[in-house]
Write a structure and sequence with these properties.
By secondary structure, the chain is mainly alpha-helical. It has a single domain (about 5-80), classed as 434 Repressor (Amino-terminal Domain), CATH 1.10.260.40. The protein has 6 helices and 2 strands, in the order βαααααβα.
């Protein structure tokens, strides 16, 4: 997937644990862990808003588009050739 989650970097910069963030935003530790490890398939805007509010950041600080990470784009290019 071309969208990478950099929540771990933002947490490190803020010196905040995932447990503390979970308590502050009201999202389970398990769900934040899924998001942090990049295994999430979706994120609600309300969750993203809560994360940004508590971490004092912008959505682009947490989510990054990285076309090189998109395995399906490379596969599509190979099939087209």
């Amino acid at each position: 997937m071309a969208i990478r989650v950099t929540l771990d970097r933002v947490l490190l910069e803020r010196r905040m644990s995932l447990t503390e963030l979970s308590d502050r935003v009201g999202v389970t530790l398990a769900n934040l862990s899924i998001l942090k490890t990049g295994k999430a398939k979706a994120v609600r805007f309300s969750t993203l808003e809560s994360l940004c509010r508590e971490l004092d950041c912008q959505p682009g600080d947490i989510l990054i588009f990285d076309e090189e990470e998109d395995g399906s784009a490379a596969k599509d290019d190979e099939e087209a050739a």
